[in-house]
Amino acid sequence: RRQSFFDRPLYQGGFSVTEMSTVQKHLMEHKVTNLLKQILTNQKDGYTIEISNATKPGENWMGLMKSVIVNYQDDDNRKLYLIAKLAPHQDVYRKVFPIKIVYLREIYVYDYVIPEFLKLQEEKQLEQIFQPFARCYTISRAKGNEAIVMENLKMKGFVTGDHHTDVDYSHALLVVKELGRFHAMSYAIRDHKPKVYERFEQDCQETFFNSHMFTSVLTIFRNLGAAVLKSYDPVKDTRQIESLQKSLQKVPRVF
C-alpha cells in the first residue's frame, strides 16, 4: 500500500514522531515514571516499568500515547497495564491546537463528571450501573506537561480500529447506543441534581468555535488538503482529486 499522507508524521522532529531521539525518549520516560510514582508510592515491593508506543504515526495529533506495563516484583508477579496520554509541549502544536483546554476538559470529566454520573446511579439503586469509562489512575495539569494515565482497555478485549477501514454497522450501532446513554446521564443530572448540572454547564463552556483556534484549524485542513492533492497522480487519480477538492470547499460550512 502506498503510504498515505496522513501516515506521515505531522512535524519532523516533533512530539508525534515515533523515531524519537535519545534525549526525547529519556524525557518521555522521565515524564511517565514521575506520573507513575503518584500511584505506586505505597508499593513496598519493587517493580519494573515497560514503555512502548500505543499508536502509529498519524493516529493521534493531540498527544503522545504510550503503553505502560508495571511489573510488580511480588510473589504473585502481578502486572498493571496502563495507557499514558501525554500532551505535546512544543509551541508549534500548542499555538495551533487548544492542547491545554482539551486536556483540562478531559481531566475535569474524570475528576467531576464521571463520579457524579456514578453517584446518581448508586443513589437511585440501579441494578446495572452504566459506566463505559476507562479507570483514570492519575493526571497532571502542569502547563506543558498535561497528562492522563488510565487503564489499558485492550486487557478487557477492546481493540484499536483501523482508521483506513470503515466501522461496520454492528459496532457503529453499539457506539451510538452507548453515546445515547451517556448523553441521557446529563439529562438525569439536570432533572435530579440541578445545582450539579449548573456547575457542569458553567465549567464546560464551548471553547473551540469561540476561540482563535478555529481559524488555525481551518488553515491546517486547507494546507493538508493541498499537500494531499500534490501527492496524487494528476492522470491516474483524477477521481480522488475531484472528490477531495469538493470536500475542501465544504470544510468551512461543515465546521
Description:
There is one protein chain. The chain has 255 residues and is α+β, with helices and mostly antiparallel strands. It folds into two domains: 5-165, no CATH class; 214-254. It contains seven helices and five strands. The chain has helices at 22-37, 91-94, 99-123, 169-192, 194-203, 213-231, 238-254; strands spanning 47-53, 64-72, 79-86, 136-140, 147-151. It has a five-stranded antiparallel beta sheet with strand order 1-2-3-5-4. Helix 4 crosses helix 5 and helix 6 (213-231) runs antiparallel to helix 7. The longest helix has 25 residues, at 99-123. The chain is globular. The chain starts with 21 loop residues before the first helix and ends with a helix. Residues 1-19 have low confidence and may be disordered.
SSE diagram, text form:
Elements: H1 22-37, E1 47-53, E2 64-72, E3 79-86, H2 91-94, H3 99-123, E4 136-140, E5 147-151, H4 169-192, H5 194-203, H6 213-231, H7 238-254
Antiparallel strand pairs: 1-2, 2-3, 3-5, 4-5
Helix pairs in contact: 4-5, 6-7
Based on the model shown, name its key terms.
five-stranded antiparallel beta sheet, globular, 255 residues, 7 helices, disordered N terminus, 45% helix, alpha+beta
From the alpha carbons, calculate the radius of gyration and give it in angstroms. 21 Å
Helix and strand content put the structural class at alpha+beta
How far apart the termini lie comes to 31 Å
* Low-pLDDT segments, ≥5 res: 1-19
Average of pLDDT: 85
Q: What is the count of β-strands?
A: 5
Number of domains: 2
Q: Oligomeric status of the shown chains?
A: single chain
What is the H-and-E element order? HEEEHHEEHHHH
Indicate the overall shape: globular
Protein name: CHK kinase-like domain-containing protein
Organism: Photinus pyralis (Common eastern firefly)
Pfam family, one: EcKL
InterPro entries: EcKL
